[in-house]
Amino acid sequence: MSNEKYEKYKQYENNILDDRYIIDKLIGIGGMAVVFRARDTYLNNMTVAIKILKDDVATDEVVVKRFKNESKAEGMLKHNNIVAVHNVSIKGKIKYMVMEFLYGLTLKNYLTAKGEPLRFEEVVSYSAQILRALSEAHRNGIIHRDIKPQNIMLLENGRIKVMDFGIAKLPDAETITVTDKAVGTVYYMSPEQASGKKNIDTRSDIYSLGAMMYELATGQTPFRGETPLAVLIKHMQEEAIPPRQLNSSIPVGLEQIILCAMSKDPANRFQTADEMLSYLKRLQADRKIKFDELPSNSAMQNFWGKVKRFFSKKK
């Protein structure tokens, strides 16, 4: 973090917010908010994280709506794999959210630091935990819509925490418009989300997780391009290179799960987080397993037929 950015927000340090939160240290600066480590004097000085909207966006209706959306979604969900929200304030000049303080780093930072694909055990463990979080969200009518390594925190004990429900679709609530101010990252966006369809469902999160697993297992995103639009078009029109062509150590069963989750047609994916989790558990128990049956219909069978024909031509 640059000295200029640090100095701009240093004014908050060692101050008391709303006669309750003692702000200790600036720990992160994002596009719309800054995050501080703080202590909650109402709860025996418990360490918390406080996310404060930047001054230049604190009056932007879309940004504030996203902020409210995030706090509402995470406040509704009580789960070991979802970051907990303790309090939120959007009425005053300083708009902030109080969350549990997490000791760790994002999966994106972890992958970058390693500089190579993650081990099989890591990919499966982290993905299974994300699926448990998604299962809880989906049960409550919440679609995350922005599953990506940057929004997944890896704690010191190996636990995963899903964060940032800012553009989540909530039940009986106005949907946040996906714009340049609130967009699921193009590298993990489902084809239906990329095409701008309004009635996306929980299977969009399944696709995004599949795209993320692809990166964790191979070290690269499934689609790349010179512009965000080029990447979006590939999500809609092209099939990803089978992961085992990029990393031969990937078990067949893991490749099957990733490609099934990333099917273009939602009907050909795992239909629920729990269903996908059941296959991951079987793979965890036997990494040499090859799945004879996956969620399928005629379209899926045609897809696997194309894959087999592709490999037969290569021989």
Short description:
With 315 residues, this protein is an alpha+beta fold. Helix content is 40%, strand content 15%.
Category from helices, strands and their pairing: alpha+beta
Distance between the termini: 51 Å
Kindly identify the CATH topology of the largest domain: Transferase(Phosphotransferase), domain 1
Query: Shape from CA axes?
Result: globular
The helicity comes to: 25-40%
Provide the number of structural domains.
Answer: 2
**What is the CATH class designation of the largest domain?**
Mainly Alpha
Average the pLDDT over all residues and give the rounded result: 86
The total count of strands amounts to 9
Q: Return the CATH architecture of the largest domain.
A: Orthogonal Bundle
Strand order of the largest sheet: 1-2-3-4-6-5
User: Which superfamily, in CATH terms, is the homologous superfamily of the largest domain?
Assistant: Transferase(Phosphotransferase) domain 1
The string of secondary-structure elements, in order, is: HEEEEHEEEHHEEHHHHHHH
How many DSSP helices?
A: 11
Largest sheet data: 6 strands, antiparallel
Radius of gyration: 21 Å
Bin the strand percentage: 5-15%
Task: Pick out the low-confidence regions.
Answer: 178-183
Molecular structure report:
Helix 6 (203-218) packs antiparallel against helix 9 and helix 9 (252-261) packs antiparallel against helix 10 (273-285). The protein is built from 11 helices and 9 strands. Strands 1-2-3-4-6-5 form a 6-stranded antiparallel sheet. The protein has a 3-stranded antiparallel sheet with strand order 7-8-9. A hairpin with a 6-residue loop joins strand 5 (85-89) and strand 6. Mean pLDDT is 86; it is low at 178-183. It has 2 domains: 3-100, Phosphorylase Kinase, domain 1 (2-Layer Sandwich); 104-299, Orthogonal Bundle (Transferase(Phosphotransferase), domain 1), CATH 1.10.510.10. The chain has helices at 3-9, 61-76, 107-114, 120-139, 191-194, 203-218, 228-237, 243-246, 252-261, 273-285, 298-314; strands at 16-17, 21-29, 33-40, 46-53, 85-89, 96-100, 104-106, 152-155, 160-162. The protein is of the alpha+beta class and 315 residues long.
